[in-house]
Amino acid sequence: IFLAFVAVFVWSGSAAVAYHGESDINYAALTICIGIRGAFSFSIIGLIFSTSIEQEVNELQSENNLKQFLLYCFCSCFCLLLYQLLYLYAIQSPVSVQANIINYLWPLFTPIVAVYILKIPSRKFTIYEFGALLIAFLGCYIVLDGSINTITKYHIASFTGAIVSAFYLAFFLKASQLRENVILVFIVGYITSTPIIIIFVYILSLPLIITFEAVPYVVYLGVISSTIAHISWNTALRDGDTVTISSIAYLTPLLSTII
Asked: Which of 106, 239, 243, 254 lies 20 to 30 A from 54 at CA?
């Protein structure tokens, strides 16, 4: 639970940082920076701990789980980067507050995806737990006055991002069932998925805006928010109850609006 609160505290500042940094770095450039930073930094970590990582890879191979593990790692981090792209696009818009609230449907979607779509056997999700998360989301929506008069492309992007984020976390849980090493999941995931997200941005011809003044935003969103927070959250999600940990996430939009 402590690790979940660490992630919530860090994420609370992400929306404000992304919104105010729009003129220096836009959503597409920021997503690519997050991916490259992740691939580079986790590669360095991989080199430092190469002996233990090689041992875990050999164990996966001997268990005939290596290909499955690599696939889950790739899917998890690709969904993470795709989520970042959609989330930042929605946040850097005139409806950023509403988009931020919609984004927090992901704690509601995560146990649904984990239990009913990817069918993770160690997880459970009953109608009562669904109701508890739904009430938590509606409470957050009401408190923040999230009334939406017109649905825009930014609202749709935020909603889609919430679904993608749920798949990111669920694939992470699938990978963690094979190996509980959070760092290893990110090493494999970032290295394999970052080139794909760059190609994705190029094919869609998304605009790229980045200036020298963008460094503080990249440090916060690319290092603190996308590394420390995600490692903390994923560790909490792996070791704790999915529904309990997911419900803590609803503190984020409340704190984010205050910030």
From this structure: 239
The number of beta carbons lying within 10 Å of the beta carbon of residue 244 is 14
Q: Which uninterrupted H or E stretch holds 81?
A: helix 66-91
CA distances to 11, 122, 139, 179, 238 from 171, rounded to whole Å, are: 21, 14, 28, 12, 11
CB atoms within 10 A of CB 242: 23
* CA distance linking residue 100 with residue 52, whole number of Å: 39
* pLDDT number for residue 71: 95
Give this prediction's pTM.
Answer: 0.83
The pLDDT tens digits for 137-162 are 666 566 555 566 778 899 899 989 99
Structure tokens at 201: 């941005």
Q: Which long-range contacts (CB under 8 A, 24 or more apart) does 37-41 make?
A: 37/218, 37/222, 37/223, 37/226, 37/227, 38/77, 38/186, 38/190, 38/194, 38/222, 38/226, 38/227, 39/190, 39/191, 39/194, 41/223, 41/227
Yes or no: say if 236 and 1 are a contact pair by the CB < 8 Å rule.
yes
Q: Is residue 102 helix, strand or coil?
A: helix
